[in-house]
Structure formats: structure tokens, C-alpha cells
Amino acid sequence: MTGNWNDRRFTRRAALKAGAGAGAVLAAGGMGILRSGGSARAAGNGYTGVKGEINLIATDGWISLPDPKNPTKYFPDGYAPNNRTTYLFGFRDVSSMVQAARTATGNPQLIATDVAAIRAQKGKIQASAPLIYVDENDDVTISLSNLGFQQRPDLTDGHTIHWHGFRNALSLFDGIPEMSISVPIGRTFPYFYKPHNPGTYIYHCHFEDVEHVQMGMTGVVFVRPAQNKAPIAGHPGPYAYNDGDGSTAYDREYALLITEWYLQSHWEDAHIQQPDWSEFKADAWFFNGRSYPDTLQPSSGYDANGNPIGFADPRLAYQPISALIKGNAGERVLVRVVNIGYQQHSITLPGLPMKVVGRDATLMRGRDGTDTSYLAETLDIGPGEATDVIITMPEPSGSPYDAYPLFDRNYADGYLTTSGAHAGLRTELRAYPAGTLPAQTTPNA
After folding, report:
1. What is the rounded CA–CA span in Å between residue 270 and residue 413?
2. Intra-chain end-to-end CA distance of the chain, in Å
3. Is there a contact between 31 and 192 (Cβ–Cβ < 8 Å)?
4. If you count Cβ atoms within 10 Å of the first and of the last residue's Cβ in the chain, which end, N or C, has fewer?
5. CA distance 417 to 132
């Protein structure tokens, strides 16, 4: 079957054979012809922004939530290693490690599970999943390798990648197990995409999706518009959409992934128990896999061997994506707010208007081209929805910056920590004097 990919012949018979069962899995090496360019990328920074091939692993691991003032049987988990509190499943980006191994061995067909250093990442997963960003009309391959679970070797779950809301015409790559392919332990499958619609989407595992989404197999993926390659005169990009007039141009870019967890279910998965999902009751809330005040810590990453580096707090070694929003006075900041939880949220930024320019990967324009963007102080965002807003940074009145709270109006969502803080959906937007911050090199940096 791999040969059908190499010589670009993909017949109806091959498609039926591929979808026949989870065992029919292709090696990533067979997708070399789909790479449209080199894998130039920032090494190991917790983000994936690459033209060509992206390599993700699926496994389990442990992360840290702020210590609760009132511990329970389920939280913190007594099985958790030092500096950790909670069990999860998830994805991690190992593209740099794959490319390094291919270069070192001279084998361009090498896949993640061929590399001992990558297999050693079993049991070391991050929350939330890496930010993935690609360009409109680029050929993109995401090779998913299933390493299995360290804490629960008895579980033989497959995994998939599903782009929620993505206009995908070929069900084979849509990640729905009944129509696509579930990747079994020890195998790799390449998902191919050629995105034509810019905007913000969600990706998640769709295998036993209630459990796998709740356990942390979720991330943000966004498509940058073709207009970036042909900027609008007088309105230099980049842009959120192909707006035709530069109205969605921005200077800095951030993604905020909203999730909420039922901590008892995470404890039960770690302790070989079966969660009863009919009893679901959220008791922890996150922006990008962090609860306040951890949301304010800077982003971090991984070295060439997959080891965490650059973190300010060792508790957050596997929670690399910051939720802190920063910008210089006068800059336009694009914030992609995504909800992959099960609850409705009202995200509020008191004192600063947010211009809503996109909803669910769609530019705010009517059929006749009428501008339907609007200013808001609060975003009502339901499960599975994404909203793109642009905030113009104000001139700070103090030094070194002015801080504006960004939070869920339902402030009861959360718990009291040992430090007296309220853990939950809260972060900050910090406005600095013009020229203070250097240019942004990656989202959320």
C-alpha cells in the first residue's frame, strides 16, 4: 500500500483497503512526494509552523495545576511524579527530531518511531497540543505516530487527527474513525491537507473522542491567507483573512485555547478505573493548558533531544504555551479565541474594545461584501467555536506596562489555590510603550 503513495496512484480500491480497519496504516516515508518545500522551522519551541511535513507523537503524561487550598482524593493525584498533579493524553511536535535523525542517518524515509530518542518521549506529553499554522494552498502532511501510554500500558487506544470545521473533501484524512484511519500503537499515518480557507480551526483526536478530548488531545490550527504573499498597498500584513482592504492586518498574534477538565475522570484513567461520563462536572479551567496564575508565565520549548528548556517554573515544563498577551502602544494584536470544552464561556476584556473580524474561519463580511465586523468587550463563545479579534494596544499610563485582565465572566469557574489566587480562565493583556517589545517571531511569544 505504501507504493500507491509513492507513485501517486491512489485508486478507489486503495481507498477502500485503507479504510478497512485500524491496522491498515501507511508509513510516513511514503508521503515524501507530498512535501512542497524544506522543513525550515524554529527548532523545538512547542509550535509547528512549517511548509511540508509536520511530525506529531501521541502518548500520555503528567502536568501541573496550581496547588489547591482544599485537596481532594482526586486532586492532586497521588500517582503524579514530582512537580505534577494531573494525568492526561496528548500530542507533541517532534519534527525537529525527525529531521535531525534523517540528516544524521542519510535516510529521508525515516519516521518518528524509528528514532530511539523519540520513542523515549513516551509518557512525556504536553498541554495543550502544539499550535499548528500553515499557509493557504500549501501542501501539508501531518504524520501522526502513536507511542502508546506509559501510565496505562493496558490501554491499546488508537488515535486520529481531526480538523474541526475544516472543509475537507476527502474523508480518509478527516480523522473520523468510522470513515478514516485510527493509528494503532507503534505505527505512523500521514494526514494530507491542502487548505483553501484561511482562518482559525481546532484539531483533536476523534477516536473515543469524548474521553480523548477531555483527556487533553486538543490544539489550535490556523491557516494564514494567500494575501500575505501579495500585501495591500498602504496596509502591510500579515493579515488574518483575504480581506482585500487590509482591515485584518496585525502586528502580533496569539491563540487562546479554552478547555475545562473533570479531574475525577483524569484520576480514574490514571488509576485503571472507568470514568462515568454521564457524571461529568468540570472543576478545572484552562487557557492553553494552564490555569491562572500560571497563564502569565512565558512560553517555553524543547531541545534537540526533546527535553524541556526555557521554562521559568519547572512545574510547567510540559505546558509550553503562554496565555499572556503583550504588545506595544499602537500595535494591532490578533487574538484567536477557541473553545474546545463542553461549556459556554463569556470572555471579557474590560476597558479595551475587541474588534471581531472572523468567526469559525469565516471573515466577517456579508454576501454582498458588507463589513459585519463589530466591537465587543465580551465574547460569547460556545463549544467548538472560534472567534478572531483584533485589539489596538493603548498607550500605557504606567511603567513598565499597563495590565488589563482577560477572563471568563463566570468567575465561579475555578478553585482557590494555596497562594490565595483563583485558578481558572484568567490571563492578562499588557500594553507597553511604543518600541519597547521586539518584533514577534512566533505566535504567543
Report:
1. 24
2. 42
3. yes
4. N
5. 32
CA-to-CA dists, residue 411 to 17, 85, 306, 408, angstroms: 51, 23, 36, 6
Task: Report residue 4: phi and psi, to 5°.
Answer: -60, -30
Nearest to 118, CA basis, from 55, 195, 205: 55
151 within 8 A of 196, measured Cβ to Cβ: no
CATH topology for the 2-432 domain: Immunoglobulin-like (2.60.40)
Contact (CB, 8 A) for 180 and 173? yes
Sheet harboring 402-408: ordered strands across? 325-328, 426-432, 402-408, 345-348, 378-381
The β-bridge relationship of strands 414-416 and 378-381 is unpaired
| pLDDT at 8 exceeding the cut of 70 | no
Distance CA 80, CA 44 (A): 25
Q: What pLDDT score does 14 carry?
A: 39
pTM (2 decimals)? Answer: 0.88
The CB density around residue 144, as the number of other CB atoms within 10 Å, is: 25
- What's the rounded Cα separation, in Å, for the pair 275 and 199? 35
pLDDT for 52 equals 77
pLDDT in tens, 51-105: 579 999 999 999 999 999 999 999 999 999 999 999 999 999 999 999 999 999 9
Kindly write down the DSSP assignment for every residue of 377-417, as one continuous string.
SEEEE-TT-EEEEEEEPPPPSSSS-EEEEEEES-TTSEEEB
- Helix or strand or coil: residue 261? strand
How do residues 287-321 score in pLDDT, each as one tens digit? 999 999 999 999 999 999 999 999 999 999 999 99
Which value, to the nearest 10 degrees, does the dihedral of the CA atoms of residues 438, 388, 125, 96 take? -50
pLDDT at 1 over 70: no
Neighbours of 430 (CB within 10 A): 18
Burial class (CB in 10 A: 0-12, 13-18, 19+), 103: exposed
In angstroms, the CA 118 to CA 133 distance is 23
Cis ω for the linkage preceding 108 (within 30 of 0) = no
Give me the DSSP letters along 126-174: -SSPPEEEEETT--EEEEEEE---SS-TT----B--EEET---S-GGGS
Q: What is the mean pLDDT of residues 99-121?
A: 95
Q: Domain spans of the chain?
A: 2-432
Contact of 77 with 86, CB cutoff 8 Å: yes
